[in-house]
């Protein structure tokens, strides 16, 4: 998902910030969705052919429209530690699926096509010194925000306060690690986030020193199971306006969480390559960056584009996935490969 240039609400004082980019972004609106999701307003046709071959297809296999550039900012080259905030009500089984995915990113000895193989494409990105994105992604500390400290309806700005509460908590605060920490805020299926479902399934940005005390790269991803699984957990759920499309069986038997996995992967890949929104993205306007996962939204396999996922794998249990993790399978979208100049993933048929 594109990252958030926070929308300024009239009652909110503008934080004092260094950096022109951020100030400009504060005054502009939310960035649009570049890639393909079955957004309700994106229902141009009931023509299956159009649905299959529309959308992000133009990016796949073609670099003609894509001018991904490096804008000289930092990327995450040191070992990445993911600190998770579980906001709201989470089942143990749901946490296990998400931890299982995060643990798979740098796992060795997993059968190909693997999550670690997917991350290899992210590792191809470098900073100005030529240092690559870290191979290592580890689980850090976790914080439970069981009692909805900031309510059941969050905004792009209020989530910074959620993160602040987590890093300043009196008991077991999350460690402050601006250099190689990545803060993952996950909201349960009864929490609404500004623009959720209509425009975004997840986004990433960084915290403001004026609110949190530090500049910490973070991502938010919500469980869409109750609000809009047909949009944010596609293809494990299908919107009503797409009759004739059957949902696929999710690999870990939890439609909402299995749908979150690909969004989490999307955001982590973009955070690693564009943590302060001044490194790797396409487009002229840093408020509307098209990042390495935006370019491949909805593409999970060879031939993917529009509502067609591309060639996937079928488990013996009938579930659909495209890569193996530690003891689990996942369906994860591809990311832009800067060497090949197209979207690629570990399950590509042509590699
Ligand atoms: C499909 O589109 C045609 C022409 O636009 C329209 O007449 C028809 O009612 C539509 N069918 C459905 C199921 O939406
Ligand atoms: C659907 O769209 C495709 C491509 O735009 C077109 O070739 C085809 O004739 C359309 N089918 C119908 C039933 O309208
Ligand atoms: C680092 O990035 C360069 C440039 O994309 C690439 O050629 C090289 O293979 C990458 N190294 C690793 C370990 O991924
Ligand atoms: C980074 O992770 C690797 C394992 O992938 C480990 O060997 C190394 O010591 C770590 N480096 C630091 C600075 O923690």
Structure description:
The chain is an alpha/beta fold. It has one domain (20-344). 21% of the residues lie in helices and 17% in strands. The protein is globular and about 50 Å long. The two termini are 27 Å apart. The structure holds 2-acetamido-2-deoxy-beta-D-glucopyranose (4 copies). One 2-acetamido-2-deoxy-beta-D-glucopyranose is lined by residues 47, 49-50.
Task: Spell out the key features of this protein.
single chain, alpha/beta, 8 helices, disordered N terminus, binds 2-acetamido-2-deoxy-beta-D-glucopyranose, apoplast, Protein EXORDIUM-like 3
- What order do the SSEs take from the amino end to the carboxyl end, as H and E? HHEEHHEEHEEEHEHHEEEEEEE
Low-confidence stretches: 1-34, 43-63
* Relative helix content: 10-25%
The number of distinct structural domains comes to 1
Question: What is the first-to-last residue Cα distance?
Answer: 27 Å
**For the CA atoms, what is the radius of gyration?**
19 Å
Mean pLDDT reading: 84
Class derived from helix and strand content: alpha/beta
Number of strands: 15
Q: Largest sheet at a glance?
A: 5 strands, mixed
Shape: globular
Bound molecules: 2-acetamido-2-deoxy-beta-D-glucopyranose
Strand content is 15-25%
């Amino acid at each position: 998902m594109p990252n958030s240039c926070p929308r300024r609400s009239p009652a909110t004082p503008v934080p004092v910030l260094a950096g022109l980019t951020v100030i400009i972004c504060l005054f502009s609106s939310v960035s649009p969705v570049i890639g393909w999701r079955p957004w309700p307003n994106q229902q141009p046709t009931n023509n299956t052919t159009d649905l299959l071959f529309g959308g992000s297809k133009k990016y796949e296999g073609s670099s003609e429209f894509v001018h991904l550039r490096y804008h000289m900012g930092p990327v995450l080259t040191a070992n990445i530690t993911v600190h998770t905030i579980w906001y709201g009500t989470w089942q143990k089984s749901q946490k296990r699926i998400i931890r299982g995915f995060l643990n798979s990113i740098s796992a060795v000895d997993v059968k190909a096509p693997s999550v670690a193989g997917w991350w290899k494409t992210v590792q191809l990105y470098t900073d100005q010194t030529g240092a690559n994105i870290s191979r290592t992604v580890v689980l850090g500390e976790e914080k439970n925000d069981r009692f909805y400290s900031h309510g059941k309806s969050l905004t792009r700005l209020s989530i910074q306060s959620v993160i602040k509460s987590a890093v300043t908590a009196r008991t077991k605060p999350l460690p402050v690690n601006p250099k190689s920490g990545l803060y993952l805020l996950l909201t349960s299926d009864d929490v609404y986030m500004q623009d959720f479902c209509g425009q975004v399934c997840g986004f990433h940005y960084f915290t403001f020193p004026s609110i949190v005390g530090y500049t910490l790269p973070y991502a938010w991803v919500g469980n869409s199971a109750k609000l809009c699984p047909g949009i944010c957990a596609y293809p494990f759920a299908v919107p009503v306006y797409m009759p004739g499309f059957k949902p696929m069986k999710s690999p870990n038997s939890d439609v909402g969480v299995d749908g979150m996995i690909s969004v989490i992967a999307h955001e982590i890949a973009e955070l690693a390559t564009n943590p302060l929104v001044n490194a790797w993205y396409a487009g002229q306007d840093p408020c509307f960056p098209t990042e390495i996962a935006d370019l491949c939204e909805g593409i999970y396999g060879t031939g993917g584009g529009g509502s067609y996922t591309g060639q996937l794998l079928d488990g013996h249990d009938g579930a659909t996935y495209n890569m193996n993790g530690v003891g689990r399978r996942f369906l994860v979208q591809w990311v832009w490969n800067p060497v090949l100049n197209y979207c690629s993933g570990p399950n590509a048929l042509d590699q």
